[in-house]
């Protein structure tokens, strides 16, 4: 009996030890972005080799940033809704996925950080879950995209660009003295939501035709700002590989090609132009496809047609401004939504090549 009891205790101890070790490899991330709250849970085996498994990912579409384009502030009802959603997501990560509290990170995107009253959101998050809300600057967000998205061997030949809800950010890396990886950020103050709200200010009605007309009239200003974005990074346009992420790029790729099957999915500028024509002139095609394809249906439930038009305009203008674009390799990076969390874990573990 004593032997059986010892064996039972040993197995129980081993099980607890294994469970504890496994839970230490679990990380959770909650990102409050312009279009909503994104939640990721990953199981990390070897962060240096990029060896991790996405255990779960979900999005709460609550439109946090729409007030920013109106008066520069987050709307009070949007703050309260964001806090409610974040608190529920935090408990789900902790209780259902058994992620240690110290391995759960909560961040606000650079688009949301533009709000003049972002401190109100920070305080309410702290009171709700006793976690600090860290806002990621556009510069750091671009660096996190690079580190968490692209294979290290491609750093020197690549540019990243993420079209978010509140802004567009990215950048590239140059290698100095054959060893120092230096990141150069590029940013645009428009994202899918903020551009939509800016165009809405110029419309006289809620009609799609009025919006489309005003959005077309906005293109010269958008082109000027994109040109300034690229001019801020002298070597950005020289990179042969361009990795794109963000909700608008996901929407384009999914609506035009179907669900992305690879981590990096190649496409051409011509594909975006063709998609844009369907989006503006034959939207019913996408609505019909959504009845049969759940992923396309998810896109249309996430974005209105006006939001899709704004995102497409940013994407086309950003690509058309790149010289010799047809000679570049363009990729939709499917895992862009968790790049910041992977980057956080890399920083946390201190096992990845440092980018300055």
UniProtKB/TrEMBL annotation:
Residues 1-21 form the signal peptide. Keywords: Signal. It holds the Pfam family Ppx-GppA. Gene3D superfamilies: 3.30.420.40, Exopolyphosphatase. Domain 2. One of its GO terms (biological process) is regulation of transcription by RNA polymerase II. Residues 67-200 form the Ppx/GppA phosphatase N-terminal domain. The keyword Cell membrane does not apply. This is Exopolyphosphatase.
């Amino acid at each position: 009996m004593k032997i059986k009891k010892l064996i039972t205790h040993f197995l129980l101890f081993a099980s607890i030890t294994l469970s504890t070790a496994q839970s230490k490899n679990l990380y959770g991330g909650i990102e409050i972005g312009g279009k909503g709250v994104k939640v990721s849970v990953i199981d990390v085996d070897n962060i240096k080799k990029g060896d991790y498994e996405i255990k779960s990912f979900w999005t709460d579409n609550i439109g946090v940033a729409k007030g920013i384009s109106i008066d520069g502030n987050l709307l009070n009802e949007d703050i309260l809704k964001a806090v409610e959603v974040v608190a529920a997501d935090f408990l789900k990560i902790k209780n259902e996925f058994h992620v240690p509290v110290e391995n759960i990170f909560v961040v606000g995107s650079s688009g949301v950080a533009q709000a003049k009253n972002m401190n109100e959101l920070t305080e309410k998050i702290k009171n709700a879950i006793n976690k600090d809300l860290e806002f990621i600057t556009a510069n750091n967000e671009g660096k996190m995209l690079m580190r968490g998205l692209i294979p290290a061997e491609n750093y020197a030949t690549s540019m990243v660009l993420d079209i978010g809800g509140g802004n567009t950010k990215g950048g590239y890396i140059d290698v100095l003295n054959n060893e120092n990886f230096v990141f150069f950020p590029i940013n645009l103050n428009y994202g899918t939501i903020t551009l939509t709200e800016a165009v809405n200010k110029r419309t006289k009605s809620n009609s799609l035709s009025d919006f489309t007309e005003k959005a077309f009239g906005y293109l010269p200003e958008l082109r000027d700002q994109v040109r300034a974005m690229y001019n801020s990074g002298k070597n950005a346009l020289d990179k042969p590989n361009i990795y794109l992420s963000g909700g608008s790029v996901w929407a384009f790729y999914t609506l035009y090609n179907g669900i992305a099957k690879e981590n990096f999915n190649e496409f051409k500028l011509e594909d975006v132009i063709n998609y844009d024509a369907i989006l503006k002139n034959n939207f019913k095609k996408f609505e019909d496809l959504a009845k049969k394809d759940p992923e396309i249906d998810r896109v249309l439930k996430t974005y209105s047609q006006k939001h899709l038009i704004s995102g497409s305009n940013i994407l086309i203008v950003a690509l058309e401004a790149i010289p010799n674009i047809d000679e570049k390799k363009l990729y939709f990076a499917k895992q862009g939504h968790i790049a910041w969390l992977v980057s956080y874990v890399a920083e946390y573990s201190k096992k990845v090549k440092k980018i300055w």
